[in-house]
Structure formats: structure tokens, C-alpha cells
Amino acid sequence: MNTHSLALDEIYALAHSTMIANGCDEDNANALADIVTRAERDGSHSHGLFRVPGYVKALRSGKVNGKAKPVVTRKTSAAIHVDGGGCFAPLAQAVGLPVLAEAATETGVAALSLTNIHHFAALWPETEFLSDRGLVGIACTAYMPMVAPAGSKEKLFGTNPISFAWPRPGKPPVCYDMATASMAMGDVQIAARDGKSVPPGTGLDADGNATTDPAEIAKGVLLPFGGYKGSAIALMVELLAAGLTGENFSYEAAEKDNHDGGPPRGGEMVIALSPALLAGDGWDTHAEAFMERLTGLEGVRLPGERRHVNRRDTGPRDINAELVDTIRGLG
Ligand code: NDP
Ligand code: PYC
């Protein structure tokens, strides 16, 4: 693979200038460039610059409002809502997450529903925002149908990611962020681009046959991770991100979408819990003793650790050259 070496501030500038050139105002462009840069910094390659052409398509078709001003409402002491006004998710999160953190710190438990947003990013930025403030974070969002529920060969669920972050004072959080599909579609697309195969059990081709060819899976369906168990979690994500926010289920999002290649309108649910209020004094040392047991087992590493190691490297990143050239052409 041919690559271009880009410093983190060059990645930010590339994403920012591309957003501005395609109709975003400063707030929207900054929020997007920030999320893209942090994804590349951490090695979340399928949700960094890789997504910029899709973001541009959604701006150019008018599906996403690059000048949206999200509105946050504290509906009760523990229920917060953000209407994104048709923006990409990161700006709506930037407006809602501080209010969520304040509410959970006061009450112990709080929930943030985001509607009228377009989510095309990783979810660890949401949950780590909360764990950085001493809170437990859980976030999930739906998408458009790509995954066949257990027992079916027909797609209905989105790749429906869920992220969980646990705060560890003085240390990076434990944070997982995973599609409830066997693999994120972005990673399937990158495997297809790079001429790689994917593990058996990832998905089916358009005729419903098992295949390890990612290009065929992209035309067919992904399978949930872990059979009916992952399927149940994907179902839960649909209900939390759409049923509980009042926004589109994945199938509704697809029915209403203009299919420009950018993210559809949807919702997100973010939940924050305060261990200091719920478990009380000593919650952190108690949890750390558990982490020590866990990481003391041979072969175990904590989820999020790979990203946090990448994060410590502040040097340039090698980015697929064709992707960089494509993005430069969009400015
Ligand atoms: P992966 O399968 O690559 O990783 C899932 C999680 O497992 C990560 O937290 C990862 O931590 C952890 N992990 C991986 N290997 C190990 C290991 N050996 N031991 C312990 N933990 C491990 O991610 P997915 O392909 O499922 O998802 C990729 C991204 O796609 C996510 O960021 C997700 O949010 C995003 N996505 C976004 C969607 C959207 O609608 N916006 C839809 C679907 C996916 P680590 O990162 O440290 O490796
Ligand atoms: O990788 O499956 C995915 C995905 C869908 C929306 C954003 N990412």
C-alpha cells in the first residue's frame, strides 16, 4: 500500500479545510476535524480520514447541515436531550456531553439522547469523555441495515456499535468500542480495498453463501458477532438508540435516506454513571484489584490498550496515499 506521511496537525488541517470547502462553519468543521484526527492518532483507521469522502457526500447532497447549531435541553435532573439540527454527531456530542457529565456527577445516573444527527465515527470519544471525568460511560448508535439477525440471511440491524468506558484515576480508562456485527463495515471495506480476506463467519455474499471475500460481503450481509447473543445486543442497540430516543431504527433510516454514501439521520443514547455516588468511597481501589487479577492472566490485555499505546506516539501517521489524494481533491 502506498502511503503519505502526515503529522497530526496536518491531518487536522486536511479534515478541517475539506469541511470548510464543503459548506461547514467553524464549529462544525472543528468538531469533525477533531474526531477525525483523534481516530487517526489512536489507530481507529476505519473511522478517521477514511470517512471524510462520505462526510463530503452528505454535505454536498444537502442531507447534513454543515452550519447546524445543536440545541441542548435538560428535560429533568437526569434526562438530557440534544437536537443536532441535522449535524454530524461530534458537534452535537460536544454540546451535550458536558451537561450529561454534570448531571451524572450530581445525581449518580443520567442519560443523554441525541436526535437529528448523522453518526459516522467511532464511539470511544463519547465514553472516554465521561471516564476522563470519573464517570462510567456507555454509548450506542444504530445505522442502516447491514447485519442479518440470527436465524436470517436478510439484513435488518445496522452494525450497531456499543462502547463502554470505566474510569481509572491516574491511568487510561478501560474502554471497549465494538460493532455488534462480527466486524465494522468500515473494516470490511478497508480489507476489500487492501485485497485481504476476512475471517470465516464475518458475513454472507448476495446469494446468502458464506464467504471470506470482503467485497462480496459488502454486497451481501454481515453476521452478528457471537451468533444469537450478539444479535440480541444489536437488537438492544436498535431499541436504545432509536426506540428510546424516538429517532430512526436502522430500517427507517435507510427508507428515508437519499443514499448519497454519507451517514443517514439517526439517534444515539449515551448513559453516564457515577461510581463515587453509586459504589461510594474505595470504588477505585476495589476495581483496580479486579483489573490486576484480570491483567495478571497470561494472554489478557485490556480493551482500549492498543489505542492508548498509539496515542502516546505524537509522530506522523502513514495514511493510504489514494485516500489522501482523494480528500485533497475534495477541497
Ligand atoms: P474491533 O473488533 O477492532 O475492536 C473491538 C474492541 O475490542 C475494541 O475496544 C478493541 O480494543 C478490543 N479488542 C480487540 N482485540 C482485543 C484483545 N485481543 N483483547 C482485548 N480487547 C481487544 O472493532 P470493530 O470492528 O467492532 O469496530 C471498530 C470501530 O467501528 C469502533 O470504533 C466502532 O465504534 C466503529 N463503528 C461505528 C459505527 C457507527 O455507526 N458510527 C458502526 C460500527 C462500528 P483496542 O481498540 O484497544 O484494540
Ligand atoms: O463501520 O459499520 C461501520 C460504520 C457504519 C457507520 C459508521 N461506521
Sheet bearing the most strands, described? 7 strands, mixed
Strand order of the largest sheet: 2-3-4-11-5-6-7
Query: Helical residue percent?
Result: 40-55%
Q: CATH superfamily of the domain at 70-181 and 224-293 and 300-306, called what?
A: Malate/L-lactate/L-sulpholactate dehydrogenase, NADPH binding domain
What's the mean pLDDT score?
Answer: 98
Summarize the structure.
The chain has 13 helices and twelve strands. It is α+β, with helices and mostly antiparallel strands.
Structure description:
By secondary structure, this protein is α+β, with helices and mostly antiparallel strands. It has a domain of 189 residues: Malate/L-lactate/L-sulpholactate dehydrogenase, NADPH binding domain (Ribosomal Protein S8, Chain: A, domain 1). A 7-stranded mixed beta sheet has the order 2-3-4-11-5-6-7, sandwiched between helices. A 3-stranded antiparallel beta sheet has the order 9-8-10. It has a two-stranded antiparallel sheet with strand order 1-12. Helix 1 runs antiparallel to helix 2. The longest helix has 19 residues. The mean pLDDT is 98. Pyrrole-2-carboxylate binds next to helix 6.
